[in-house]
Amino acid sequence: MSTSRPIADPRPLAVGDVLHGFCGGYFGREHYDCCIIEAAGVDWIVTRDVGGTGLDFAAGREDLAGLRQYRTPTVRPADGITPCCAVTE
Ligand SMILES: [Zn+2]
Fold first, then answer.
1. How far apart are CA 40 and CA 12, in angstroms?
2. 59: domain range?
3. Which residues contact residue 17 at a Cβ distance below 8 angstroms, ignoring those fewer than 6 apart?
4. What is the average pLDDT value for the chain, to the nearest integer?
5. By Cβ atoms counted within 10 A, which residue in 34, 54, 78, 84 is the most buried?
């Protein structure tokens, strides 16, 4: 089975990337906060809630590929993009 969902940004998830909101449930049903990737391996990531302390974990190449669509590589107010979280830079 293959996914037909388009992925806008094919780069691997990396430390410092921000994932927004529910993230399609890849982190579980209780995950609602935007989070920052704090560590990344070949097929796993550890994230921390923006402005919080909660850590989450995702693993598996398919899950990480799916999570890429919830990443905003660069959020710049100058581009007219309103960030949903407090991350800058
Ligand atoms: Zn956000």
1. 10
2. 18-74
3. 36, 37, 71, 73
4. 80
5. 34
Separation CA 21–CA 57 (nearest Å): 15
- Ligand 1 centroid vs 50 CA: distance in angstroms? 8
pLDDT band at 61 (very low <50, low <70, confident <90, very high): very high
Segment 10-51, tens digit of pLDDT: 789 999 998 988 899 999 998 888 899 999 999 999 999 988
Tell how far the Cα of 5 is from the centroid of ligand 1, in angstroms.
21
Question: What is the pLDDT at residue 74?
Answer: 46
CA of 10 relative to ligand 1 center, distance in Å = 19
CA of 87 to the centre of ligand 1 (A): 7
Q: Is residue 29 domain-resident?
A: yes
Please tell me the distance between residue 84's alpha carbon and the centre of ligand 1 in angstroms.
4
Q: Give a yes or no: residue 70 inside a domain.
A: yes
